[in-house]
Amino acid sequence: MTTLIESEEHKALRSAVAALGRRYGRDYVTRTIAEGRHPTELWAEAGKLGYLGVNLPEEYGGGGGGIAELSIVLEELGAAGSPLLMLVVSPAICGTVISRFGTEEQKRTWLPGLADGTRTMAFGITEPDAGSNSHRLTTTARRDGADWLLTGRKVFVSGVDQADATLVVGRTEDARTGTLKPCLFIVPRDAEGFSRHRIDMELNAAEKQFELFLDDVRLPGDALVGGGTSHASGSGGEDAGLLQLFAGLNPERVMTAAFAIGMGRFALARAVEYARDRTVWKAPIGTHQAIAHPLAQAHIDLELARLMMQKAAHLYDAGDDAGAGEAANMAKYAAGEACVKAVDQAVHTLGGNGLTREFGLAPLITAARVARIAPVSREMILNYVSHQTLGLPKSY
Ligand SMILES: Cc1cc2nc3c(=O)[nH]c(=O)nc-3n(C[C@H](O)[C@H](O)[C@H](O)COP(=O)(O)OP(=O)(O)OC[C@H]3O[C@@H](n4cnc5c(N)ncnc54)[C@H](O)[C@@H]3O)c2cc1C
What we know:
The protein is α/β, with parallel strands linked by helices. It has eleven helices and seven strands. It has three domains: 2-119, Orthogonal Bundle (Butyryl-Coa Dehydrogenase, subunit A, domain 1); 123-228, Butyryl-CoA Dehydrogenase, subunit A, domain 2 (Beta Barrel); 243-389, Butyryl-CoA Dehydrogenase, subunit A, domain 3 (Up-down Bundle). The radius of gyration is 21 Å and the shape is globular. It binds flavin-adenine dinucleotide.
């Protein structure tokens, strides 16, 4: 049964990445944060080993695998205490969108670098006045000769300072109907009129979040993913934005689930170690069922979430975008909840030590919440399941 769920190749990848993660681990992350750096050494080594681009096509330097493999990479690095948040964004969203919908030129320009980690790309969709309601996006692109002029604002975009470019979700105005259509633009970090402001987050992470200002940012025609005109396949340019967006969002949910499961496993392992040793009565505290059972429950919840994540990744990699949508949402929901509970119980298990710097679990209390909020909140997933799966009417 285990091999049905996870192949020998996947198991081998899991243990190889886990070994890399152990060589870096939580102490490495804590040090890089204290020094105000990015985890560049881990990123570079993971890139060299082929882990960062494991999902990208072989002809562009990737490993030829899928989101199933990339989610294993992120989960195992997270379980070792050294997750790489930019994996969710750079190879998973941006790499997927470009390899599925980019022009040949965009693929050749970006994919080899995204695959070996020498280049990264951030992803900006969230806007201050739209939030969960992406129908309200107002970042707008208009034509100016062969160029585009992009204007708008984004918020909470991760890793813009370290990324060579940001994949920005905007809209273009359909000249015939006046309808606004989503469109994805590759915006270089130093483009004129593109500025950023770091948001002061209560998060102990190397990756930072930014508010972005796009003020008539002039972009060449080929900055639009898929190029300026629609392809016969319907996969390129102005008319394809919605397809491109959905192609990127399912991997994002799967990868957020992997991020959450990895973090939950890391916290749980620290708690189990502690509960085995710490003795304040006759036997270690792990002997008391009030301590052991919630840890067992946390383990079960993480395993169940992983099962749904594997289903979502499998459907996505098999080309079933619609089926993957439901499973990816459910996996993200389950993993976010399992992670928050696992971290909460881990901190509690350590008593006062749960809040000390030395044991390092307390920062995970806020970090775990990210998986409940982003990239789509718990409530929006419950809405999705209510409407799409159960067929209940909408309240909004
Ligand atoms: C650490 C971090 C990293 C992030 N990285 C990125 C990134 O790289 N790129 C990017 O584009 N964005 C990023 N985000 C943004 C993230 O995707 C948004 O925060 C998320 O989509 C929620 O949007 P919001 O914060 O505007 O909340 P809102 O939409 O304002 O929601 C606030 C609350 O209201 C609830 N709510 C809203 N509508 C409904 C409804 N119809 N029914 C029930 N409840 C509802 C929500 O569930 C939530 O609890 C990041 C966020 C964080 C915290």
